[in-house]
Amino acid sequence: MRHVSGLILSVLFVASSTGHAFAASSPFDQEKVVQCMLDHTTADDETVFKNLLVAALNDDTGGVKSNIVQVSSLLMNLALTKCEVAMSMIADPQFQAAAATYGQHLGEKLMKKAFDKLN
């Protein structure tokens, strides 16, 4: 999973370096951003993340690569449009840590749902 997180962060960095940077209006609050992203995650977003996890579990390199792009897009969309993250923060280590934490929490939520179905 750490390899997948690293790929997501690499795609986010490339995407952010191609956009215009805007100054952040307030200090970055990682906990607030993670919670905002989790609060705005839709069932469709969860499906995208599930597809990435399944591809990774199946050692499907092509599937991982294509799903990484979709998950990265999802992360950027949530951050920029729902959670008031400035474009200049996307490549910042603080946001990258928030994105990794978001992925960990979402992955745990999805795994709990999967195991609940087994009971």
Question: Your description of this structure?
Answer:
The protein is mainly α and 119 residues long. The protein is built from five helices and no strands. α1 packs across α4, α3 (43-57) packs antiparallel against α4 and α3 (43-57) packs across α5 (93-118). The protein is globular, with a radius of gyration of 14 Å. The two termini are 25 Å apart. Residues 14-24 have low confidence and may be disordered.
Question: What brief labels describe this structure?
Answer:
single chain, 119 residues, mainly alpha, 5 helices, 0% strand
- Pairing-aware structural class of the strands and helices? mainly alpha
Helix content: over 70%
What does the average pLDDT come to? 84
Q: What global shape is seen?
A: globular
**How many helical elements?**
5
How large is the radius of gyration?
A: 14 Å
Distance between the termini: 25 Å
Number of strands: 0
The SSE order reads HHHHH
Sheet bearing the most strands, described? none
The proportion of residues in beta strands is under 5%
Low-confidence stretches: 14-24
Short synopsis of the structure:
The protein is an all-alpha fold and 119 residues long. 75% of the residues lie in helices and 0% in strands. It has helices at 2-17, 30-39, 43-57, 61-82, 93-118.
List the SSEs and their pairings.
Elements: H1 2-17, H2 30-39, H3 43-57, H4 61-82, H5 93-118
Helix pairs in contact: 1-4, 2-5, 3-4, 3-5
